[in-house]
Structure formats: C-alpha cells, structure tokens
Amino acid sequence: MPTMIFVNLPVKDLETTKAFWSKVGYSFNAQFSDENCACLVISDTIYAMLLTEPRFKDFTKKEIADSSKTTEVLLCLSAESRAKVDELADGALGAGGSEASEPQDHGFMYGRSFQDPDGHIWEVMWMDPSAVEPQG
User: Fold this and answer.
1) What does the alpha-carbon distance between residue 27 and residue 29 come to, in Å, rounded to a whole number?
2) Cα distances (angstroms) measured from residue 108 to each of 85, 89, 129
3) At residue 68, what are phi and psi to the nearest 5 degrees?
4) How far is CA 7 from each of CA 25, 58, 70, 76, 134, rounded to the nearest angstrom?
5) pLDDT tens digits, residue range 52-73?
6) What is the pLDDT of residue 135?
7) Distance from C-alpha of 100 to C-alpha of 113, rounded to nearest angstrom
8) What is the pLDDT of residues 26-61, one digit of tens each?
9) Could you tell me the sign of the dihedral formed by the alpha carbons of 48, 50, 55, 57, in that order?
10) What gap in Å lies between CA 38 and CA 61, rounded to an integer?
11) Per residue in 77-116, pLDDT tens?
12) Number of neighbours of residue 117 by Cβ within 10 angstroms
C-alpha cells in the first residue's frame, strides 16, 4: 500500500471552504466528513482534512495560526503540464481565491500560487521531466 498523506487544515467557515474547493473541481469523501470536517480528495493518496477551528483545536495544544497574517505551511501540488498549472490556479482564482505571489517561470519549471478563503497558500508546480536527472 502506498504512503498516504492527510493534511489537516483549520477553516473558519466549513461551507464556504467546501464550496470553494467544489468550484475548483475537487470532491469530498463523505465517509470522513461531517458537520465539523470535510475530507478533500486531492488524489488517491493525498487528502486535506478541512476542520472547523474548534475541531482542529481538539488535535493540538498550540494556538491556531492566523493564516491571514502568518504562514505556517506552503502546500505544493504537482501538475502534469504548464496548462494544468494555469487551469488549477485560474480555477482557484475564479472560485474566490486570491493570488499569493507572482507566477514563477524558469523554463523547465513553472508554478503559480493562490490563497484559499482561509488564507492557506497552495502552490501548483510543473517541472519538465527531461530536466530531472535520474538519481543513481
């Protein structure tokens, strides 16, 4: 079984967050969702557990970072092409997200980033496979 990742993120308004990600084109796993959390399916092995702030607080003794003022994590998703980078970033902006930084174009690598409604920063990156040397 491949390693899976479940990224847990606090959200202020679960319905707003669910509507945003639905507009971007993602779905949710209802089996792991309820009135306090939504399991965002990113791929077969990547999920984001979007937790209301009170529910998120059940898992930590630390204060929840105010993502409108601070950055605790940068989330980066790979894309299969430059066009897919633009498709995802444009979809997020069209769904109510905001641009996090200017696009990065290095020829062999291209990326864009956006903030979701809760201020979490998501990067989308494409890298030309021929630019990556095999590790030996």
Assistant:
1) 7
2) 13, 19, 8
3) -80, -15
4) 18, 15, 18, 12, 29
5) 999 999 999 999 999 989 998 9
6) 65
7) 5
8) 999 999 999 999 999 999 999 999 999 999 999 999
9) positive
10) 22
11) 999 999 999 999 999 999 999 999 999 999 999 999 999 9
12) 17
Q: Which of 45, 11, 122, 112 has its CA nearest to residue 76?
A: 122
Angle between helices 82-94 and 14-24 (to 10 degrees): 140
d(CA 20, CA 94): 9
Position 131 scores a pLDDT of: 84
Joined together, the tokens standing for residue 32 give 């792991």
pTM, full prediction: 0.89
Helix (H), strand (E), coil (C) string for the chain: CCCCEEEEEEECCHHHHHHHHHHHCCEEEEEEEECCEEEEECCCCEEEEEEEHHHHHCCCCCCCCCCCCCCCCEEEEECCCHHHHHHHHHHHHHCCCEEEEEEEECCCEEEEEEECCCCCEEEEEEECHHHCCCCC
